[in-house]
Fold these 2 entries.
Entry 1:
Amino acid sequence: MARDTTRAAATAGGPASLADDAPTPRYYQVYLAIQQWIREGVYVPAQRIPTEAQLCRSFNVSRITVRRSLDELEREGWLSRQQGRGTFVSPDLRLPPLPVDWSHVLSSVSDLTHATTACKLSVKYLQADEATRAALHMSTQTRVQRVSHLRMLHHSPLGQVINWVPEDIARRVPPPSPTRAPTFALLEQAGIRIGDSHQEIGAQLASPKMARLLGIAAGAPLVIIERVVFDSDGRGVERTLAHYRADRYRYRMALRRGAGRGRH
């Protein structure tokens, strides 16, 4: 028998679970609370969660705040929406995000930038596409700077990288060039405080167009990296989508034991 979602919402979270004086945006506090319900089994895979109206009452927040939280959870695969039925916990396995210090990401991207060169630079100003609007929580009329380039390693294509930045923010940093520093580093230099960010790594087969660009066969494997950056106020300031050749790109991590564990 399905549990009563109204009662579960009231017991699993509520106004007391949000900290008004916390630097974390309220939408992200709601996001974390719902995510915790899923982790703890308050709502199990394929089960419907409370409605937007119920969540608004439970957390004492606006519907805009709730929708932003649900959008993020759906984008990350925790939830799935079904037209006319409601919002459900995703039935697919989804591992929780791995916390990584922002400075490590900055160092990794900077190392890649210095080890490679950029060419075929393209800069456009246009209205954000649907995927970018969803990732950065933009309105339909928001304009962005779209910068794409090809990264070369030892004079051979490594991958294509595309960045989207809100136009008003892009105007505050130096114009794109093959030798420019990573965008999010320039954002910080321009006085924009970087807040929460999300990065996903996946795989995809090369389309004929991407295959021609990277000099590989259509259907060859690609490593896909998508990174979304928010400022300290929760505004989306950059989306990056990179397609790297799987035969030339490796993502390495150094794993160390925690301080409280000894060797055996």
Note: The two ends are 47 Å apart (CA to CA).
Entry 2:
Amino acid sequence: MPARVELSARFLHRLHRVALEAGIDLGGADRPLPAPTERTDFERFCDLLEEVERRSGLADLGLRMARTSGPDVMDPASAVAAASPTVRAGIEAGLRFEVLWASVAFHRFESVPGGARVAFGWPAELPARRAVAIADQWAAVELVRNTRLLTGRAVIPMEVVFGHEDPAARPGLESFFGRPVRFGGAETRVTLGDDDLDAPVPGHNPVVAEWVEAQARAAASELVQRDRLTERVRAALRRHLGRAPIRAVGLARQLALSTRQLQRELQAEGTSFAALLDQVRRERALEELARGRPIGEVAELAGFAAPRAFHRAFRRWTGTTPSRWLDSIPSHPQ
């Protein structure tokens, strides 16, 4: 079985924006949107992308997705690209932080006579889906659109090839690119000329570019640490502890996993849902007691429905009662 592929949740936010413009509500209690800085499951994203196309009847969904970029959904990798002195430098810089777009690398940037091309290639083990074709059109359009916006030039690519067939999308894509496009290639790729790639980006500021790249490095480092499912589950448990009963099935749904996937992947990391819930409850209880909250309130904040259950758990964690534990803290008022 191939490793699970994840995408930046910013892509999911952009899809919701297009869906709402088309009069489609993808929300609901069973489909909570993760924070833009989180990740979403590739299969979940594909399901929703295909749902939007099916319900809207849009033949140019890829084009529309490319027009949803904005400051509120811009990721640090894209910001690095936009802050670069040329488009070529921007593409190279953005790809250094591709981990912020997806958990797998799916871009190649290579020189060709007279220019360079960006090739979009998803891992071969991923199933062929209609959503991948839409995503490829989106990525190709966004590349050229951003090149035009950054340089102020009427950029027309040297070549546009798509690794799928989509006759209905041809008119809109050829109108956008200003040239014929080819379908049915071995992969999706866009080739830009050297003149466009090396044109200076007006307003480039080296100081700002250095600061933006530092932010991207920090975000990439944090994401690599957070990628372990253990940390994602702990973060979700901390967010929801004390608000409502937390069950594995509900948390798995929030993380776009099946309950079985959640259990299997946590086991592979040497832990379990029950063990993580117990850890987070213990941490919350000790933190809130140390802050001086009443014991009954702490029990609720730690997610216990009954004080007796909290006291049993607390004795198991510490070997003593909450009151005696408090008395043992030097700074706690007697």
Note: The two ends are 58 Å apart (CA to CA).
